[in-house]
Backbone:
């Protein structure tokens, strides 16, 4: 059995390289992420400016900044800095003019595969007026102007324009929808209450969804992105599972069996809800058929069973059980049969989430008394620790493309929300406001 | 506007379909906590869904993929961009103030009664000798105040996951409840609830603080 342990990914270097090589040598047929494959070549992409065509000074720069970050986070592209390659970035209009040819040639010679540029302005002189954005794409490989996009919307949605354009780029080169328009639901403290919020995947534009003044915990998305399902406390006394419809704010209780009803997870097709409930004594994992309302108990033992997470094909569940003493990860069929233990390293492994690509399960592992992020392959053969250092890491959740995780950590003192690449590199803090932000859940791609 | 109407319509139709389904007629919609209105949703029977314990379920499967991306175009037509996922404005109901008032009343009643908390070791739900003494004192009070109802709250420190700490908190609350019953307090006067690590009494990242948070707290109920 080859067990690879990656420590301190940010300082990467030789250690990281050794770790990645180690995984590949372990005969990983189901290769990790493309980004860590030696034969994966990110597509080099340069952004030759989003030029201001009227409108406020910040407009073009704002869109360009958001676009560049989206491009980097996509992990499909390698964002190159054009000025440092000596490539000038004049406004080349729609790319049809003579001046643009010179820029394209220069970029191609420097190995830039994709060149992106655009312009943005106001439709009218009024600063409340709609914003216009145009974006264009040139491909050095095919030596052609691939095409572009034209967007219009209120000044408040310029970040969304950049996100949309970034997703179009990812879609063009991978056929995947991209993650730049995804959202993250989470819990934020308000006084002593904890309420649900939703923000953009990059931490911007946070909006409050609940305001009932007590605890609303651990939201999860429905597959169609229309609802959140979460644990709430009715009259502070009983833990129920509630749903809220994002567009209307309409909210109702779906599970109120008595006792503790927590960690809801809808199956990828939305037909089943797995959750933990203690209404028959101790916490067990149950499965509700959302159409017939039939509830099936999946676990039977005197210990705590909780935190079910579905495999992408809906056939299996990973969950937490402390039947062996401390909490460990177990796998079972979605009918509760064929239960087997997955984690054996360490005495505390919890909060598992199955990656959308199926090849990894992320979870919280306790090492050296700290609660950190780990990933393990569903066959238990490969394991990596993604984060190190002090602080309690909790509630990992995968991006829909499987290339990132979002999680909460007290590494900087208060609990805040962070994004990390699935190979443990590039931690990015997403929340800066408030005293406590936790339980992030990444939405499916639209 | 049109979109809102359309969604209301869809929800209405969906609710009617759900009501019409065999075996679903008894299920009721429960407004959670102090939620927004349930207009457009089925209102079957009383507002207490405890009979079945299962509320109505919308179809949450993905109807159409596509992601709304139209691809790059040599002559792109204009696309209007909205804010992405449509989000309702939160309804600032009076719930938060009411809850605060009730919590304050509970705290006042508990300290007037001199209720003592029981503390636990890291990762543990075993009651220590000190804990037994605290609970004995609490049991005496309950036996001489026979109409009082007490909620036993299980709490944890910030270490560990939110989810597992809810289960751990419930174990702590239940051992404390069971010990009170052993001491002669009627089980029907005691309820248990776990707050996990979500309502810490102390917010520092230090053992001195952690030990205050690993507790079973006895709250004297004041309202319902």
Residues:
């Amino acid at each position: 059995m080859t067990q690879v342990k990656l420590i301190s990914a940010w300082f990467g270097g030789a250690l990281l390289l050794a770790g990645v090589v180690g995984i590949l040598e372990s005969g990983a047929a189901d290769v990790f992420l493309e980004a860590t494959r030696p034969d994966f070549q990110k597509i080099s992409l340069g952004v030759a400016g989003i030029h201001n065509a009227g409108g406020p000074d910040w407009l073009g720069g704002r869109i360009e900044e958001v676009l560049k970050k989206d491009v980097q986070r996509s992990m499909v592209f390698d964002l190159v800095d054009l000025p440092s390659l000596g490539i000038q970035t004049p406004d080349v209009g729609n790319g049809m003019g003579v001046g643009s040819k010179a820029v394209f040639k220069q970029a191609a010679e420097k190995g830039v595969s994709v060149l992106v540029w655009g312009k943005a302005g106001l439709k009218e002189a009024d600063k409340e007026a709609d914003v216009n954005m145009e974006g264009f794409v040139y491909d050095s490989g095919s030596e052609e102007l691939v095409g572009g996009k034209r967007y219009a919307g209120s000044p408040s949605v310029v970040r969304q324009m950049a996100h949309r354009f970034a997703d179009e780029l990812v879609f063009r080169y991978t056929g995947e929808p991209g993650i730049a328009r995804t959202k993250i639901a989470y819990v934020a403290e308000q006084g002593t209450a904890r309420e649900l919020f939703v923000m953009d995947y990059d931490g911007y534009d946070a909006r409050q969804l609940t305001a009932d003044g007590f605890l609303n915990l651990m939201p999860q998305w429905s597959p169609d992105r229309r609802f959140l399902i979460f644990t709430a406390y009715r009259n502070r006394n009983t833990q129920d599972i509630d749903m809220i419809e994002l567009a209307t704010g309409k909210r109702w209780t779906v599970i109120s069996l008595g006792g503790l009803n927590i960690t809801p997870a809808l199956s990828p097709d939305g037909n089943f809800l797995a959750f933990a409930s203690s209404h028959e004594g101790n916490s067990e994992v149950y499965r509700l058929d959302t159409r017939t309302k039939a509830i099936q108990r999946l676990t039977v033992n005197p210990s705590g069973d909780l935190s079910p997470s579905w495999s992408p094909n809906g056939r299996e569940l990973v969950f937490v059980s402390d039947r062996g003493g401390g909490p460990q990860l177990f796998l079972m069929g979605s009918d509760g049969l064929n239960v087997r233990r997955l984690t054996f390293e360490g005495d505390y492994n919890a909060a598992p989430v199955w990656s959308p690509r199926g090849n990894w399960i992320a979870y919280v592992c306790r090492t050296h008394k700290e609660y950190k992020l780990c990933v393990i392959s569903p066959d238990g053969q490969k394991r990596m620790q993604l984060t190190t250092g002090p602080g309690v890491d909790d509630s990992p959740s995968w991006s829909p493309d499987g290339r990132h995780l979002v999680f909460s950590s007290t590494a900087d003192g208060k609990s805040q929300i962070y994004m990390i690449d699935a190979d443990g590199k590039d931690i990015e803090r997403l929340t800066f406001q408030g005293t406590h932000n936790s339980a992030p859940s990444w939405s499916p791609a639209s | 506007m049109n979109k809102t109407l359309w969604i209301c319509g869809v929800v209405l139709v969906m609710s009617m379909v759900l009501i019409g389904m065999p075996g679903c007629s008894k299920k009721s919609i429960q407004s959670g906590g102090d939620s927004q209105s349930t207009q457009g949703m089925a209102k079957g029977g009383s507002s207490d869904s405890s009979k079945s314990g299962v509320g109505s379920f919308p179809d949450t499967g993905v109807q159409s993929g596509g992601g709304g991306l139209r691809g790059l175009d040599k002559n792109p037509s204009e696309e209007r961009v909205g804010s992405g996922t449509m989000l309702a404005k939160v309804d600032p109901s009076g719930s938060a103030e009411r809850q605060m008032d009730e919590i304050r009343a509970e705290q006042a009643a508990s300290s007037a009664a001199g209720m003592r908390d029981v503390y636990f070791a890291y990762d543990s739900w075993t009651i220590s000798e000190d804990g037994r003494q605290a609970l004995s004192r609490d049991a005496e009070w309950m036996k001489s105040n026979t109409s009082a109802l007490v909620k036993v709250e299980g709490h944890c420190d910030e270490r560990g996951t939110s989810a597992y700490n809810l289960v751990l908190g419930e174990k702590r609350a239940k051992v404390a409840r069971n010990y009170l019953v052993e001491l002669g307090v009627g089980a029907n006067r005691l309820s248990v609830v776990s707050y996990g690590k979500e309502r810490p009494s102390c917010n520092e990242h230090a053992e001195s603080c952690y030990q205050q948070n690993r507790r079973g707290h006895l709250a004297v109920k004041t309202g319902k």
